[in-house]
């Protein structure tokens, strides 16, 4: 019996050792499988090169595969740190331990996924089953801003990178700055209480009027080798200014930490802008422009979420006095007229007062309009001051502003941002458009859009169509693209189909360069400096930004570069597609936007209904009608636009007098001035055509609008059936010099769509997929989030 026990004990020990061995081997299996696939892919790449096949796409996949295997090992060896990073994001906090445990193998599995796809694609090309166009890489050293696009080696180019990028890493580190992650040099964002990270900030100027030369070296020391951008970072203000100007923070905003009406603030920033403009003049790091502000807004209505971040908790005496002067001009020094309008009894303009934040119950009243119109005027004045200072010493400097998209497409207009005026002002279009790949992770945010669409595309789309209408010949820079994650949405296993679709759509709609949010891995896999130790940021979003981001998703980060490679390979075709006319225009009135609680909601409904009809939409305003060639469009639709100034009304009448065509939803539109006073005049057809429908029904307005632009519709007819009573296929068509047609199709719906292509002439057609050079039938299925670029003959 003793011998039996001894034998059983030895067997048990042996089995345990074997089990532990295989358990250890199991842990290594995913990494070993990935390494084996890297070896396979590299062997295929050598064969491809021998056959003169471009392997730039595979080189990027291999690079990301090796990086994320390294990251997975760091995550496995530092689970406590990873758990803490998940814990900073409340959406993941409850599951932080489980997520930290699972993350390393998740990353390894996704590495295998991208390798499998690359192996399959390259095998297809080696076998002749498809032929891809070689990648046209961005020339990070010599790309130039052209007339309305960036140009690299003689072709249109779409530079890409990450806006906030491994703070603490030198700009010369090729593990961070390369073709795979992007290689733009920039003064990026730093959310420490005092920002000294290459961004141009107010700490550069000392109280004695001299400059902090050590800080200035962080700017002047940027190597003059790669193209890039610089940003004026306005969050902080030095203590010496605060001592001299006790009101300096009164009327501050979320990302502008001082009163923009304060004379000392203007004097300080004027000196900084001029000095830095001189020092960086002609440098490659400014090729993508100087960014004047990060997501500027000055929300001034009661109950807004920005109040808790000290935004517009009141206004300074400087702001109030400037407002009084503006009112004096607006009312021709007639205090009686103002008192009648406001229902007040001020003795003179010097006695005028206003409570800020302003009560939302006043919306639609003259005091509401005057304050909100002035708030826009003062912010535009601030940015004009910045640009004038820069151009005084650096007249060729390109400029833009990182406009906060929701301040355009959401209803509130208490934020002080006149998107049209600011886009007219700067030399480039600037913003940080976003999209949501799925329902919001915040329960209070409405995600009803997800019933119809795979991702939320509409905010990004309407913003682009408006900005491109205002500045059709300007370069469009998204300096912080929130397509991959944001405070509202992220998904740890994001669909690569979504990544491809949203980047393609944004570029198709005008985006010339984009810097994504965000890259926060140091080359060893650890999170960047700002995410280590105790996190104490003014912006609470940064701490939680790492969890569920592209920094944990090799398939997402790889796909960003892959889609940008494809867009750059077909850059001339993309430019041709997006430069098509915008025959149908929606009339936009800032007056109605200020006075009407749901103006943008209503505008968005009409915009959405027309978006999938195969033509690029556009907007007109008073200024667009006056400043641009009216022959650029065929028809203007006025919808749910009750309030317009006399100047806006006159512009529409002038357009009609010159032979234009206007569809008016009802006599209610245009019936009031900015103060809610009834307008006696009504639009007259003049030499043009005025169609008054007397309906608010979107379907009826859409039907009439499309009938009026029928002659401007493409020669290629795209029929799409997704089995629903709404459309989800976006199509764009352009005729080429050889008589063939470029057709771009994107499906943003949940379901596949049955597509049928035909010509208006009825002639037989031949269809080729330009991405693979394979022929196709004229009828086919377009899967959810699929992107196709076709040639039709």
Automatic annotation (TrEMBL):
InterPro entries: Class_I_gatase-like, GH, Glyco_hydro_42
GO molecular function: beta-galactosidase activity
Chain coiled-coil ranges: 27-58
GO biological process, one term: carbohydrate metabolic process
Keywords per UniProt: Coiled coil, Hydrolase, Signal
Descriptive protein name: Glycoside hydrolase family 42
Signal peptide: 1-23
Domain of life (superkingdom): Bacteria
Natural source organism: Pseudotamlana carrageenivorans
